[in-house]
Amino acid sequence: MSFLRSAAASTRHHARSVTVDAPARLHLGFLDPNGSLGRRFASLGLVIEGFEARLAVSAAARNAVEIGAGLGTVPGQDENRERIARYLDLLQRETGLETPLSLRLNAAPPPHSGFGSGTQLALAVGRAFCTWHGLEVPTRRLAAILGRGKRSGVGIAGFDRGGLLLDGGPGADGSAAPLLAHATFPAEWTVMLVLDERMDGLCGAAERVAMDALAPFPRALAADLSHQVLMRVLPAVIERDFEPFAAGVSHVQRLIGDYFAPAQGGSMYTSAAVGHMLEWLRGIEAAAIGQSSWGPTGFAILRSRAVAERVLAAARAAGVLDPALRVVLTTANNRGARVGLGAPALQRA
After folding, report:
1. Would the pLDDT of 65 be above 90?
2. Where are the beta strands (DSSP E) in the chain?
3. Where is the GHMP kinase N-terminal domain positioned along the sequence (predicted)?
4. Where in the chain is the domain with CATH 3.30.230.10?
């Protein structure tokens, strides 16, 4: 009997309704894509406010997946509907709990844009399903059941904790990456997101082909990345020392971006317009600059909202911000996902 089936046997009553807000994350870089010491990847990531996947679950006459009216023009809604239905089917088969449910997606980030939308959606469905049935299932277990975390674990750990996270890369058996370090991110440091909604980042089969075609990652560069994160980025966040944090993340992004450039048209940025704006910003202000995952979303983390607003106004005045780009100012999420319960409260046999 599986863990979920064993847990299901002790459930007597379930919640009338459940809502889950799963936060987005920025992927700030891998430490060792080739695994020079035998363990591949390891990831640095930051959970952010905004761009949540918001899901509501309630009883139904038959399984149903709905997309909120406000999401009608968002790219990827058919893909999201298919994913939610597939995740629900997996969970029902794993647990043997086949009570029909209605799942309504009320908000979602743009897919394939660097926000970890697939993991958000999977974990939102998993946590809502388990909470509705009164099951206590660790997030890492849910991720494994739903096929998430095969490279990066920061979205999984970020779902539970938020903040800045460092994982150790997935295990040799495919298990989700262990969390190595977590830090509360300074609330005043402001994240400027630069979105190019005209394109998607690599995903699926195209991502696998691109990864396989890359040259071996030099061990010396993996050592440099690890040194930057361990002795520069993490201490700076803990001590709220902005400049070494910004310099460290930018250095990591430059090295890893150069490595992935052959899969991105020769640039560390998927979107040339995003790259043009951020490279201009690099020359005028201390900032942690780069691209989240395969992009096309780029980011600049600045020391305050006032600085971010000043820089954004200067970019517009200088004409370096393509009118087709969308810029969003936000902050870190230091709490992780939010789960809401409808009456009655969960009861256990």
Report:
1. yes
2. 11-13, 17-32, 41-59, 64-67, 101-107, 164-167, 179-183, 190-195, 288-291, 298-302, 326-330, 338-341, 347-348
3. 85-153
4. 3-183+334-348
